[in-house]
Amino acid sequence: MDPIATARYGLMAASRRFETAAAEVSRMGGDQPVDVEGAMVEMIQSKHAFTANLSVIGFAQDMWDSLLAIQK
Predict the structure, then answer these.
(1) Three-class secondary structure of residue 71 per DSSP
(2) DSSP 30
(3) Which sign, positive or negative, has the C-alpha torsion 36, 41, 45, 47?
(4) Residue 29 has what DSSP assignment?
(5) What are the backbone dihedrals phi and psi of residue 6, each rounded to the nearest 5 degrees, phi first?
(6) The pTM of the whole model exceeds 0.90
(7) Is residue 38's pLDDT more than 90?
């Protein structure tokens, strides 16, 4: 299993979740009710998911760098 590909998929999913929640907030003030609190929670969770996936990519990069250093 490729951790970078998995993290990349997670980054894309978190980005889509954030954009969907932001679009929900942008509809505020229209004629339909908007769950602003739920959208804000979703945006915060998406931010944390994005950060976690970036950490996975950084850790995988560190592992590859260590492996290459051992092989030299």
Answers:
(1) helix
(2) S
(3) positive
(4) T
(5) -65, -45
(6) no
(7) yes
